[in-house]
Amino acid sequence: EAQVTQNPRYLITVTGKKLTVTCSQNMNHEYMSWYRQDPGLGLRQIYYSMNVEVTDKGDVPEGYKVSRKEKRNFPLILESPSPNQTSLYFCASSNELRGQPQHFGDGTRLSIL
Amino acid sequence: EDKVVQSPLSLVVHEGDTVTLNCSYEVTNFRSLLWYKQEKKAPTFLFMLTSSGIEKKSGRLSSILDKKELFSILNITATQTGDSAVYLCAPRFRTATPTNAGGTSYGKLTFGQGTILTVHP
């Protein structure tokens, strides 16, 4: 089954403790992206990647890092999480070259205390 | 700056009603516009519109794009309680070519705030 898989689905942690949210897709998509969703602000793009070793900032990249060492994986790293990063995070992937729509993972609800 | 405005922000109707959701946008290098439905979790894809005036239809849902006036509408006829969700529109546009991308430009999605639709029995 074609899917985008995020882990963990829920995480409560404390300020300053490094964490990684993993994202994996099995559709051989070259394009992957991370979004955060906050009430009243909609979905905002954090980082995106157009292929292996090719990443770029989205609209709200501060406080986040990403890497794309393999085509299927695109982890989101919070080196020193802060409470303002408490949010619902989505990973998405697509075949952008063919103009196909993005497929989303089920989301990761992150709470930083 | 790219801008996407959806209206209304919230809508409450009864089963059987017809609703029209609006999305207006201002983006440079427009490529296409996507509609998603979001229930409890991930947004799920509904439609992708690239050409003006051509209606896309899927069951009771339909959508159309006006590239001249920069808006799109999503219609839902004979609404059901299962239509209750947040509906998101997202214009896709070409980004400036990143310096490390080997000369390839890709599409970027900008999402509106969404319309919260509630359908009562």
Structural commentary:
The complex is a heterodimer of chains A (113) and B (121). In chain A, strand 4 (31-38) and strand 5 (42-51) form a beta hairpin. Chain A has strands spanning 4-7, 10-13, 19-25, 31-38, 42-51, 54-57, 65-66, 76-78, 87-94, 103-104, 108-112. The model of chain A has no long low-confidence stretch (mean pLDDT 93). Chain A is mostly beta strands. Chain B has 121 residues and is mainly β. Chain B is 0% helix and 56% strand. Chain B is built from no helices and eleven strands. Chain B is globular, with a radius of gyration of 15 Å.
Brief write-up:
Chain A has 113 residues and is mostly beta strands. Chain A has strands at 4-7, 10-13, 19-25, 31-38, 42-51, 54-57, 65-66, 76-78, 87-94, 103-104, 108-112.
Which strand-content bin applies to the residues of chain B? over 45%
Order of helices and strands of chain A: EEEEEEEEEEE
Largest sheet of chain A: 7 strands, mixed
Radius of gyration of chain A: 13 Å
Count the DSSP helices of chain A: 0
Whole-number mean pLDDT of chain A: 93
The residue ranges of chain B in which pLDDT falls below 50 over 5 or more consecutive positions are: none
Count of DSSP strands of chain B = 11
Q: Tell me the total number of β-strands of chain A.
A: 11
Largest inter-chain contact set: A-B, 28 and 27 residues
Structural class of chain A: mainly beta
How does the overall form of chain B come out from the CA principal axes?
globular
| DSSP helix fraction of chain B | under 10%
Distance between the termini of chain A: 36 Å
Q: Percent of residues of chain A in beta strands?
A: over 45%
* Computed Rg of chain B: 15 Å
Which helices and strands appear, and what pairs or packs with what?
The complex is a heterodimer of chains A (113) and B (121).
Chain A: E1 4-7, E2 10-13, E3 19-25, E4 31-38, E5 42-51, E6 54-57, E7 65-66, E8 76-78, E9 87-94, E10 103-104, E11 108-112
Parallel strand pairs in A: 2-11
Antiparallel strand pairs in A: 1-3, 3-8, 4-5, 4-9, 5-6, 7-8, 9-10, 9-11
Chain B: E1 3-7, E2 10-14, E3 19-26, E4 30-38, E5 43-49, E6 56-58, E7 61-66, E8 71-76, E9 85-94, E10 107-109, E11 115-120
Parallel strand pairs in B: 2-11
Antiparallel strand pairs in B: 1-3, 3-8, 4-5, 4-9, 6-7, 7-8, 9-10, 9-11
